[in-house]
């Protein structure tokens, strides 16, 4: 496993971009005011066709990729080095980002709805615990602190055949690994499945996917070949389950059953892994750029979104025009901020960037 997995770099970048797109989509729905997002004057509930497709797997995919990345890092680094790296790459951006960009996002939204107040200057006291859009960083850091001491027990560094690798080699064997997430869905079946942020449901589900990433990638070629072999099946099952929920308006029948949603999520995530392994596992200048830029871009994007929506919310543009326009501006301005800070040495760690 010494060879770099470019597909994981690509999937990380795609996952972050999807999160940014999802956040903007929320501003066009009735949900926006309830989660401190600036709401567009004209809401369009049809956007849930897009948001509902992402909702079941956008965050679990991030946790899975984080677990995979941790395990791949173990090939070249010791446990103490990985621990220091994770504290720096996750802890510092979480603290800095929550105090600054997280607080700024809420302040802009509160000003939009209620007008400016000097009390907003103290929002960092709240956002340091909440994390706002960076909440998942503290989860990943906590998972890392739990798992790193026992990495030797699950890493399978010699890539020996075992029950897990043999299961992955069998037709349909990969579906055995859907059982933990289905069980979790059963135990948390009364909770909105997409309520990941700062909930016990999100914490447990995140750990399952994080640990599964470590465990499965430790099986070497058995894991990657299974993804390539089965991605079309996963995609078909995921789409069938999604369209079932869509036909039921995401509310009736079994559309709210978290066991069904968990299985849908599992299949979409493994479809993404298979697509990545099949088509994205190659180096390119574009990938090198985006895999470095995507983390700081995500950190800064939310107040940028709120600031833009503060201006654009009342602009008389159809959502089908406004959404891509604002999305482009979010990415453009966030990338501009990234380029402004990436060469300032003392700022780089605060944005999750390694030393020059």
What is the residue-averaged pLDDT? 95
Q: How many separate structural domains? A: 1
Helix content: 55-70%
Query: How far apart, in Å, are the first and last alpha carbons?
Result: 26 Å
Low-confidence stretches: none
Strand content: under 5%
Structure summary, number of beta strands: 0
Spell the H/E element sequence. Answer: HHHHHHHHHHHHHH
Given helix and strand content, the structural type is: mainly alpha
Shape: globular
Give the biggest sheet: none
Computed CA radius of gyration, to the nearest angstrom: 20 Å
How does the SSE layout of this entry go?
Blueprint: H1 6-26, H2 48-55, H3 58-73, H4 79-114, H5 124-130, H6 135-147, H7 151-154, H8 163-169, H9 179-187, H10 200-217, H11 221-247, H12 258-279, H13 285-312, H14 319-341
Question: What report would you give on this structure?
Answer:
With 356 residues, the chain is an all-alpha fold. The protein has one domain (6-155, 176-351). Helices cover 67% and strands 0% of the residues. It has 14 helices and no strands. It has helices at residues 6-26, 48-55, 58-73, 79-114, 124-130, 135-147, 151-154, 163-169, 179-187, 200-217, 221-247, 258-279, 285-312, 319-341. The longest helix is centred in the N-terminal third of the chain and has 36 residues, at 79-114. It is globular.
